[in-house]
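Example is below:
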Amino acid sequence: MYVLPSVPNLESLRWHSRAFLLFALDAEDKDLKEQTAITNAHAAEFSERETKVFSVVGHSAEVQRLRDKLGVGAAGFAVVLVGKDGTVKFKSDLPVSAKEVFARIDAMPMRQEEMKRK
């Protein structure tokens, strides 16, 4: 999991990695803690799927711009899965299971091609 002092540069990930972003207003958010535990328990599987996990905490203008860009609003917890093409593939305002995230990733055409090559 990547915890950054600022928001991740999603453009730099395009065509290289997927992004799974965990948004919260503060580090003590119960949903953030739950989602972090889920992602940490499945770190190897996220890595296998070329998916970087980012915790985006706070309410700075920079964080708000990213929230707006990804369509998750201003308040509270949210998760967003961004594909290698840079588009939003899934978002939720509740924690999600690793199984659900992986099912969505594994159904993506680019992931299907990756699995064929392995």
Q: What stands out?
A: The domain at 2-117 is CATH 3.40.30.10 (Glutaredoxin).
